[in-house]
Amino acid sequence: MTSPLSTLRKNRRAPLPQSLGERGRRDQTQRSDEEYEASLLRDLFPKRQSGSEVTDSLNTFRSKVMPRKSPKEVSPPTDFELISSMMRKLTQLERKVTSQALDIDKKTRRIAVLEEKLKLLHGKAQRENQDEVNVNRKCYRLQKQIWEMETFLQDYGMIWVGDGEDEDEDDEDEPKQSSRQPGRGLFPGGSVVRSFSVNFDLVLQNIRDLNVLAGEGGTRITFFPGGAKLTQQPAVDLQLYTNGMVMFHGPFRPYTQPQTQRFIQDLMDGFFPTELKDRFPHGVLFQVDDRREEEFRAEFPGKGHTVGGSEHEVMRYREEASTTHSCVPDRKLSMQQFLNKLPERVVKGGNVINIRSSLKYHLQGCDGAETCVLSVIETRALQTLRERPECDEVSEISSLRVKSEDGEKTFILKMFFSETIGHLRRYLDAHRGSRGPPYDIISAFLHQRYHSDDDQTLLQCGLTPNAALLLRPRPQPVTS
User: Fold this and answer.
1) Does residue 53 have a pLDDT over 90?
2) 3-state helix, strand, coil in the chain (%, to 5)
3) Which one of 25, 38, 213, 381 has the largest count of C-beta atoms within 10 Å of its C-beta?
């Protein structure tokens, strides 16, 4: 028995005749299918190829993989193929979106960092602009001050010379070893050559000019409690040797020292030494002792020996050498030198007192000849006057003239107002010797007053600012 399906399989029917319009529609459908496959391949294989190349590659692929079929056997892609191609495209797009998101995040962070740097640069530029404005203002202010100082100096006929240190400061390419080598300049970095030479004639000439400017030969008013007096300008002792100088009674300062070279260089340039400006802001007189032909020799610190001599002779030679080359000579003042150190006149109580003439009259006899020996006793106040003539304690120093018992000797003492009669006795005993007979101290002028209380100060006794005293032998007690 046969089934209908077998009958259909066995008997093949002939196709119905088709019209020309249906064939055209079939050909158009076949072409549209081919175009769809070509577009699908272009999506699967994104290559820059023209439509003809894609079609040729599609035909080549078909010829290699699939057997040739007639146009009637070409079928469209299945749903699975379409879904697979769509999934592949979605996967590619997701990967692309992820990479682009990472790239965008990275660029966002980089933009944030650059913006922060830009903000810092803007802040730095603003600060630099403000600093530049401040520097310009300060420079303008300093230039104005310099101009005012130069104008002030020109009013007094002076100009600013400078030391020449900053002339080559901006030239950084030049070697600076020559200016920094030890001993080549006035001081490290200076502009003076190593071989420092002293022009003694120029130094002495400039010192004379400076003394004239400082008021040489003039006097000044010094005030003290209860009055005022005229005093001479203080002078600085300066001794010039071949190898150095001595100032303020020592110590010796050789010309190889930078500080000494600066001192001498200021004098040779005609300026007041910078070293003394703090101590004497208004200038000071110089009393120069020119010993340019002599060489200062320091005392040998050790113990000397002589061949066949004794220690006493060695000490005597040392004393002679120290006396010859001492920087603090112990010279006795003559009467005229002592009078020159005193003020010529003193105004006290509305009266003008001629100090020099009155003292000269008392120191000399009626014929004008000197009748006594004048001795200056070393005291603490006298040392202060030598070392610090401008200190405040100078106004509280009293000048005492003490005449001995026989009238042949006169002692000059400088003492503070706060010192006592006991200090005066100790000074006199140390100078005359403590083995002398006892004596009394009496005021010479006005009412003769005995100063027997050793605890009273000079101010309490009225022995200020100067006084004349007499020494009288103390009478011996009468024994019964």
Assistant:
1) no
2) 45, 15, 40
3) 381
Say what angle helices 200-213 and 258-268 make with each other, to 10 degrees: 70
> Which tokens in the block code for residue 182?
């030890």
Q: What crossing angle do the helices spanning 79-155 and 20-44 adopt, rounded to 10°? A: 40
Q: Classify domain 200-296 at the CATH superfamily level.
A: SEP domain (3.30.420.210)
Q: Percent of the chain scored above 70 by pLDDT? A: 63
Q: What residues pair up with 244 in beta bridges, in sequence order?
A: 254
What's this model's pTM, rounded to 2 decimal places?
0.30
Report the alpha-carbon distance of residue 372 to residue 365 in Å, rounded. Answer: 9
> How far apart are alpha carbons 33 and 78 in whole angstroms?
12
Residue 387 and residue 319: Cα distance in Å, rounded?
Answer: 24
Domain ranges in the chain are 200-296, 299-330, 372-473
Residues in the chain: 480
Please work out, in degrees rounded to the nearest 5, the angle formed at the alpha carbon of residue 11 by the alpha carbons of 9 and 14: 115
Structure tokens at 203: 């130094």
Structure tokens given for 183: 């001993």
Q: DSSP string covering 333-384, please?
A: PPHHHHHHTS-SEEEETTEEEEHHHHHHHHHB-TTS-B-SEEEEPP-HHHHH
Among the listed residues 149, 171, 146, the one whose alpha carbon sits nearest the alpha carbon of residue 158: 149
More confident residue, 94 or 25: 94
